[in-house]
Amino acid sequence: MTGAILTPGSRKGAAAMEVAAVKGRSLWDDALRRLLRNKAAVAGMVVLGVLVVLAVVGPHVTPYAYDQINKDDVWLGPLTNGHLIGSDSLGRDLLARLLMGLRVSLAIGLVATFVSLVIGVAWGAVAGYVGGRLDEVMMRIVDILYSLPFIFFVILLMVTFGSNIILIFVAIGAVEWLTMSRIVRGQTLTLKHKEFVEAARAAGLSQGGIIGRHIVPNLLGPVVVYVTLTIPAVILAESFLSFLGLGVQPPMASLGTLIANGAQDMELAPWLLVFPSLVMVVTLMSFNFIGDGLRDAIDPKDR
Amino acid sequence: MFRFIGRRLLVAIPTLFLVITAAFFMMRAAPGSPFDLDRKLSPEIEANVLAKYGMDKPLGQQYADYIGGVVRGDLGPSLKYKDKAVLDILKENYAVSLRLGLSAILIASIMGVSLGVMAALRQNRATDYWVMTVAVLGVCIPTFVTAPLLVLLIASKLGWLPTAGWNDGALANMILPITVLALPQIAIISRLTRAGMIEVLHSNYVRTARAKGLPEHRIVGKHALRAAILPLVSYLGPACAGLITGSLVVEKIFNLPGLGKFFVISALQRDYTVVMGMVIFYAALILVLNLIADLLYAVLDPRVRLV
């Protein structure tokens, strides 16, 4: 997502506002500049980049497979017998399981966030554009859903349909779209009446042109920020489910299942708890730093 | 104001109805039944058991019966715990959850507001950075990481506190669970307070108060703080939801006799009535807390009028 807004292609939208300026810096140039000055955000991006590479490449290069049971290597501490960070009760290599778990958690974060993005933007934009009674009904539905204890419904969903990864995507995505739709609706409402939109209309730009060149690029900022903050929330939700035994099922691993298993055996093998926890915290932190940095960069008035 | 409460309650009833309906049919759609045992029941016995709980009727009829029961305040018997009504299970176990939750939110509010104000008053200086770093950590470290790590370190290795159990609510047994529940809330509350405080300190009426020559502690403590903690009031609802989620984990890890523990177990055992009872309980709790938050907001902020 971050890559998408920073590519030169999408700069066109914002640049349309500065037709007169000769080589004017676009809003996104400014935002990128501010983002790169933010040390925490840059550090977050670097760390996240490393984690993504590890999650994608890692499981292919570890000497053991994540589900390979080694009868002779049970409960090994870090740095013994080729297990860099130890092994678990079945002698499975923790490093291989951790990298696999990171991959699963990141994938769930991305896919479920995408689900929430699609539902939320569509819902919010329709409510905002059309307005009137439809808007009222749609937002009332969001209000009602907001006041439900959603974690219970996710748990019920998992119990009802059994836990498979696709369902986890859908269940969590379906919970997270509410805030997105509110943000998009609010933004659409304010943008609809902005002077520059009126000016574009007066200049004879078509409805589609206004939406494409003025509304969407301005909508993108808050949406991108919220997306970066939703991904860690989703990872957290999945881990929470896995911790309760309702998420990803063994031998597949996610950060949540690893932490849950580690917590059970922590007296005997603290490394099983410590390493997955560490990776979890670092992952969540880098997302949060990037999200905060993006918010400051895109919407500087909040600083 | 009474009209406002009345209208909100009118919205709350269909919401609760929606919750009950959704939970009822989801629970029934789940494969398996509460009477599945390792040994297969003979068909005659199974029919008898089903008839005893009215589960031999068509699903629509059962739904109508259940709704009728809820309206009369009867949540039915538990299907797994013999001779126990759902209401009794709720009554016997809510106190532990409530005590933990309330203590956590109280401690989190006090600590969070103090830290937030400290950070705001020393904006962009060392204190501010420390507080905000701790706040980021608090948001990023989930309860299911802090809980086992704290148990491992403080209870197992150092032996300062008991590792688990309730022990009739002894203080030593409550410290770790409350800490775990409060930490993420402290983080969020201190961030909210800091942001609110910084904004308010730049407002015109604070400048007026300064110009009048009021002492700093009165400006901060009386004029600024009151406006700065407004966002906290609207955070009350989400905070409660967070505490409930947290309590599911905390009660499991510390093996506490609270409600959270029952929910997951009952859902897995298909104890329909207990699951339904808990969903209703928590939904009602969240609705009431949101209502209280809105009322408080109006009391604290004279600009808000309830209509």
Summarize the helices and strands and which ones pair or pack.
The complex is a heterodimer of chains A (303) and B (307).
Chain A: H1 2-6, H2 11-15, H3 27-37, H4 39-61, H5 94-130, H6 132-146, H7 150-161, H8 165-192, H9 195-202, H10 207-243, H11 255-264, H12 271-298
Chain B: H1 2-29, H2 43-52, H3 59-71, H4 86-121, H5 126-140, H6 143-157, H7 171-201, H8 204-211, H9 216-228, H10 230-253, H11 259-268, H12 272-300
Helix pairs in contact in B: 1-12, 4-5, 4-7, 4-10, 4-12, 5-7, 6-7, 6-10, 7-9, 7-10, 8-9, 10-11, 10-12, 11-12
Number of strands of chain A: 0
Mean pLDDT of chain A: 80
Largest interface: A-B, 40 and 46 residues
Alpha-beta classification of chain B? mainly alpha
- The appropriate CATH architecture of the largest domain in chain B is Orthogonal Bundle
Name the CATH superfamily assignment of the largest domain in chain B: MetI-like
- Structural class, from secondary structure content of chain A? mainly alpha
User: SSE string of chain B, helix = H, strand = E?
Assistant: HHHHHHHHHHHH
Q: Care to count the β-strands of chain B?
A: 0
With helices defined by DSSP (H or I, 4 residues minimum), what is the helix count of chain A? 12
| Order of helical and strand elements of chain A | HHHHHHHHHHHH
Q: What Rg of chain B is obtained from the alpha carbons, in whole angstroms?
A: 24 Å
Query: What is the CATH C-level name of the largest domain in chain B?
Result: Mainly Alpha
How many individual domains of chain A?
A: 1
What is the terminal-to-terminal distance of chain B? 7 Å
Percent of residues in helices of chain B: over 70%
Which runs of chain B of at least 5 residues are low in confidence (pLDDT < 50)?
Answer: none
**Cα distance spanning the termini of chain A:** 23 Å
Mean pLDDT of chain B: 82
Major sheet of chain A: size, sense and barrel closure? none
